[in-house]
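Researcher: We plan to redesign the surface later, but first we want a full-length starting point. Tokens attached.
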């Protein structure tokens, strides 16, 4: 019996709508796809404004929620066969990869899982060394390059 390979998607919350389109494409390619919990809520509610969910910015007590969401997604990284970073333009950076996604990449690297990045990372990222140090495979939007 052939079990489906699991890909966990990692993305800036501002890119979740685009990330879910990638999830649909991966499912059509017969992968099982995991993604951040909040992305699922956004999809169900239709509320895509990131600020609606980042309540910890206004209320420090809500950082417990942030920690919960991070651990929940880290667990998905642990239980997958590979991660795919869906990186798009943000904050005047093409191929933006933020700190949270970088931590997820670091976890995948430590666990010796393949790390795919959808688009070329921004060359001016403050994390350039770390991004390239985890030896990612750049897909240039071509999901057929994924090999699991």
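Model: Full-length starting sequence:
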């Amino acid at each position: 019996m052939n079990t489906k390979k699991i890909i966990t998607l990692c993305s800036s919350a501002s890119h979740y709508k685009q990330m879910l389109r990638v999830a649909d494409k991966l499912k059509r390619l017969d992968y099982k796809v995991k993604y951040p919990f909040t992305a699922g809520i956004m999809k169900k509610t239709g509320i895509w404004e990131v600020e609606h969910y980042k309540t910890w910015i206004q209320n420090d007590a809500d950082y417990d929620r942030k920690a919960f969401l991070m651990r929940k997604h880290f667990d998905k990284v642990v239980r997958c066969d590979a991660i795919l970073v869906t990186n798009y333009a943000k904050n005047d950076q093409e191929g933006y990869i933020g700190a949270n996604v970088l931590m997820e990449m670091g976890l995948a690297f430590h666990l010796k899982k393949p790390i795919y990045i959808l688009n070329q990372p921004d060359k001016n990222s403050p994390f350039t060394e770390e991004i390239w140090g985890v030896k990612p495979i750049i897909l240039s939007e071509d999901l057929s390059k994924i090999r699991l």
